[in-house]
Amino acid sequence: MPDTKDARILRLFIGESDEHEGRPLYEAIVLKAREMGLAGATVLRGPMGFGRSSRLHTSKILRLSEDLPLIIEIVDTAEKIESFVRAAEPMLGSGLVTLEKVEVVRYGHDAGLE
């Protein structure tokens, strides 16, 4: 197995209709991660889900399909992720935030996380 690097994966669970300062929240979060020089971010759209309110969000029911669940995944070093969480805190509202230790096996052609 190639050399691995310890890192963290941050997951932010939000709704598609969530906003921050007039723009979609997922966009504001990804742009903030990019501005802070994090290794990368990905937004995943879920076809179905529910959260703290237990309200079902699904693409199968037209009236509920306007607020589908989104997960934003960001991977970087523990220090960079912790700094990002502090900076993004004012944006997050009622979203769920999780953090896990991960091992990065490969990042790009010849680079690892710095």
Automatic annotation (TrEMBL):
Spell out the family assignment given in the record's similarity comment: Belongs to the UPF0166 family.
Q: Which SUPFAM superfamilies match?
A: GlnB-like (SSF54913)
Cleaved signal peptide residues: none
PANTHER family annotated for this entry? Answer: UPF0166 PROTEIN TM_0021
| Record protein name field | Uncharacterized protein
Q: From which domain of life does this come?
A: Bacteria
Which Gene3D superfamilies does the record cross-reference, listed alphabetically? 3.30.70.120
Q: Which organism is it from?
A: Afifella marina DSM 2698
